[in-house]
Each structure stands twice: as C-alpha cells, then as structure tokens.
User: What shape does this take?
Amino acid sequence: MTTLTTPTAITTAPTRTPRPTVAQRRQADLAEGVIRLSPSSLTFLHDECPACFWHHYNGRPRPATAFPKVFGALDNAQKEFFLGRSVKDVSTSLPAGVVQRGKRVKSESIALPGTSYRVQFGGDTDTIFKFSRAGYGVCDFKTSAPSDEAAALYGRQLHAYAIALERPAGDAMPLAPVSRMGLVCFPPDDMIELPTARTSKKSNAQKPAKRFAYRTSAVWVEVERNDEAFLHFVADAVKLITRRTMPRSAPNCGWCRWTRMTAPLLEQASAPLLEQPEWASGAA
Assistant: This one.
C-alpha cells in the first residue's frame, strides 16, 4: 500500500526594507522641497562648525557626545518636582497656570524668507506651561547660572518648539498661542544636611547614613519671541545645509581635525554630492 504524503510548505521570513540613509533622506527632502530640522541642532552644532552642521544633514553626522548622567538625573528630578505644580512656583512674574510634561512635536511645513524651500521642525519639548488665561508657555530647565547668552542660544530651540506647538503637522491639536518662552535655571548655591530619622537606643538597627542636598532657586530667564528674525536665521541655516559642497570647517573643530587625520573622507565632499531639483537651483 502506498502512502501519500502532503508536501511541507516552505515559509520564508519577510524581507525588511532597509532604512534609508541620511543622504537618501536628504535627497528625498530636496525633491519634496521640505527640509526637516531638529531644533536642538540649531544651537551648539550650528555655531561650533559649519562643516559638521552640513554633514549632520548630508550623510556623515558627528557622533553624539555622552551626556553626563548626573545632569540627566538632575534634569529629570527638576521636571518631576514641578510637574503639576503652579507656574507661580517657577516665577511669580509668570501668569497663573499649571506645569505640564513636555511632548513630542512636529510642525507643518513652514515657508522661509529668501528661499523656495520650506522647513519642518520635529523634536521633544522639555516642559510646557498651560496658563489659565494666556495660552501656553514653553521652557527648558537648565542646571546652570542664568545668562543672556544662554537665552539667545536656546531661544532658537524654543522658537522652533513654539511654532511646532502652534502649527502642528497633520490633525494634531494645536497648543496656541504660545505667549511665553524662557529658561528655568537652577544655579547651585550651597549644600545643606537633611534631617535623618531617629533610631531607638535599644534598637540594633544600623544608624542611617547622613544625607545632603544642594540648595538652589528657580530663576526664570525670559526669551522674547521674534518669529521673523528666527525664520531668517533658519533660512540661512537651510541655505548652508543645501549647498552642493561642504563649507569650510571651523579652525578649532576637533572632530573635523580627527577625521582628516584618520580617514580623508572630507576630500570626497568637494564633489557635488547632492542633486537639487531645477526649481530650487536659485534657492541656495
């Protein structure tokens, strides 16, 4: 007697579509005419080195430096401490309201002066203020002394977040108007010893270790909103990253210097790496 066997089906694992490279994503952006920017890149990276800023958006991003854990812990503690509290606890100069957790935002495409490209901002806000009568506020917490220089630098990032909150992409609910922007600085003043729980003399429990704390105060640093000036700045940044060739490195850029010493990849960037659509030929 012959036994018939059913052939076993051969299954193959679905193939994953490879993730586009930075250069491929940039080509798609150029073809679409919309440049997607990270608000955080408009601060230190933009000011430190034009070449690194260009490469960040064109295929060879500078490796991210490790953020000290202690500052991350302080930042999280500050945000959690003020979450749900009155905005007046941050500064009595601010309108009445409630401190809310930050959120991930993405703006609609925004027109820029002097270029046919548009820009889209995307990132994570630090903290949001929901005012009782005056809309919203957006701020960053900083473990540092307050300064006008820091306000000017991080003000770029806050402007991008404010625009993204007011003009979100898709059907996301706008948070508008964003009437206040600023930094909440926590400069360390001194240290104090915290009281420890008393233990009974008859108890054999080990005496708890002493605990200490930094004493500080919240200092509000206002950032004046000027969308026109900010968008002119962004337009210049877009013209920089849409160049066909890499700009010169900053003289003191350690990353560019290390790259030239270890792998002469920058020499290849002198050739036209990016093809721009004809309609944008005069934009950059």
In short: The mean pLDDT is 86. The two ends are 81 Å apart (CA to CA). Residues 187 and 234 are 31 Å apart (CA to CA). DSSP finds seven helices and eleven strands in the chain.
